[in-house]
Amino acid sequence: MKCPQALRHIDEYVRGNLSAELSGDILHHLRACASCAEEECRSRLLAEGLPRLRKTAPPGLAARVMPPKIHRAIWWTPALAASLIVGLILFGSDREKDIPAPAPPMQAPPAPIPIAESPVVDEPPARPAPRTSPPQLPREVIAEPEPVAPPPPIAEALPAPPAARAPVVQPPAPAERPIAREAAPPRSFSTGAKIGTDTDFPDTE
Amino acid sequence: MIEELRRLERGAVDDFVRSTIDRVYSLLYGILRHKQEAEDATQEVYMRAWKALPNYRGDAAPETWIYRIAINYGRDAIARRQKERKHAGGEVDENITGREGATEERLMLLEALSTLSEDRRLLVLAVDVEGFSIEEAAEIFELPEGTIKSRLHRTREMLRAALKIGGTP
């Protein structure tokens, strides 16, 4: 084997990619040729040294290259789930209030008493306007402790507000409405609606 | 795998990143010779990949595809750097050579690599440093295997010559 032929195959020889026969020929030549033997040393340095230049990614880099959508999902999912749960609870509780509310009003005994006693009536009745039915109003009114206001114009105030909303939720029972209205004066309805919306259902509206 | 990756499903993304990040980082480090720049570049390469994912046709394996993005990013980065050096009066920033604390062997190899043209250096980095096969390199560089083989052969000859001039071994 001559030098040009040996040098042509030297890289593959060093990497062990040649047939046994060709490798043997090259080895035989290298033993007799100092110049080609030097080339073999340099070739071996490249074959063994270059892979040692390889690096591994620093710890933490993998987390930094993740797609933004997945990153977002990581913190978003629990936040979304939590807000959904809270929303469902709030909404559900409102619904529950709304639904059962109509039933108790039929009985109509509890509502009138507290309303009449507590002048606070103004705020409560208006507040649940969109979602709650007339019967619910009395409940909350009762629950809220506030300064007393004179509830004289009962008869007139009562009919107007419930009529608008009553049809949506449930048909207002005759006995019930009179009671609720009694507690809330006419003026209280208009203002009360706003108050109720802001405080009780801030998220929904 | 490709569909899951397209949908950015967590498992597929994790597997993909885990199986490619070392080579992407190492390739970019080999090109840039600077740790922080290589990290930034790696992030940028993956960002580009996520962005381009909807248009990924699946002609090549996803791994090949991202190595290709890394190589192209490396080319752009080298061009930018050369431009900056030109503006800076041709001064070479030695901090960028990544030779601090290198062994003698490492220094010789880095010196020899620095004598190569950009394309040849990228080829050596891919095949001889990162260990890509000729077939993989052909896909990454989008060249015929024969071209890769002959170019690699010639590049190794040039590296040996560079080591000889450097007085090694």
Give structural notes.
The complex is a heterodimer of chains A (205) and B (169). Chain A is mainly alpha-helical and 205 residues long. Chain A is built from 13 helices and no strands. Chain A has helices spanning 3-14, 20-32, 34-49, 61-64, 68-98, 103-107, 112-117, 123-126, 136-143, 154-157, 160-169, 176-183, 186-200. In chain B, helix 2 (10-32) packs across helix 3 (35-52), helix 3 packs across helix 4 and helix 6 (118-129) packs across helix 8. Mean pLDDT of chain B is 85; it is low at 90-97. Chain B has 169 residues and is mainly α. Chain B contains eight helices and no strands.
Q: How is this structure best summarized?
A:
Chain A is mainly α and 205 residues long. Chain A has 13 helices and no strands.
Structural features:
heterodimer, A: 205 residues, mainly alpha, 13 helices, 66% helix, disordered C terminus, B: 169 residues, 8 helices, 73% helix, 0% strand
Task: Write the SSE topology.
The complex is a heterodimer of chains A (205) and B (169).
Chain A: H1 3-14, H2 20-32, H3 34-49, H4 61-64, H5 68-98, H6 103-107, H7 112-117, H8 123-126, H9 136-143, H10 154-157, H11 160-169, H12 176-183, H13 186-200
Chain B: H1 2-6, H2 10-32, H3 35-52, H4 62-87, H5 104-114, H6 118-129, H7 134-141, H8 145-165
Number of separate strands of chain B:
0
Mean pLDDT value of chain B: 85
* Strand composition percent of chain A: under 5%
End-to-end distance of chain A: 91 Å
Q: How helical, in percent, are the residues of chain B?
A: over 70%
Question: What order do the helices and strands of chain A follow?
Answer: HHHHHHHHHHHHH
Give the low-confidence spans of chain B. 90-97
- The computed structural class of chain A is mainly alpha
What's the shape of chain A?
rod-shaped
Q: What structural class is derived from the secondary structure elements of chain B?
A: mainly alpha
Q: What's the main sheet of chain B like? A: none
